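User: I'm new to structure prediction. If I give you an amino acid sequence, what do you actually give back? Let's try with this one:
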Amino acid sequence: MNSFNKIRPTVLPTVQINLHHSKAASASLQKLIKSKTGICLIQEPWAFNGKVHGLKGSGTIYSYGSSRHNPRACILVSKDIRSWPLVKYCNRDMVVVQLSVGNNTVVYASVYMAHDNTCPPLK
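Assistant: Good question. You get back a string of structure tokens that encode the predicted 3D arrangement of the chain. For your 123 residues, that looks like this:
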């Protein structure tokens, strides 16, 4: 038996969703996250004044917005998972986090691809 067969992957329940800035969708997602999800990749979260709202207490929320521009992507990570943002790759349309899961390190990204922007976005 080689070493590959000895590796047991850790299951990390993940959800990807576009909330369309909805308070009701945020409330429904909050219930799901508390019970079954480890990480949630979110586009168009409910936000105002540059902050994501409606998911308080669900885990750690990573987003990048300002008082003039709300975030259009965010990542919510369960409180049980060690995580940190990779700030170099983050802006209001993209959030990247690194997670420590078991003996592994995993990188997740949540990206909002605006239909009215050129690709890649200008900085």
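You can read the tokens as a compact description of the fold. Here is one thing that stands out. The chain has one domain: 11-111.
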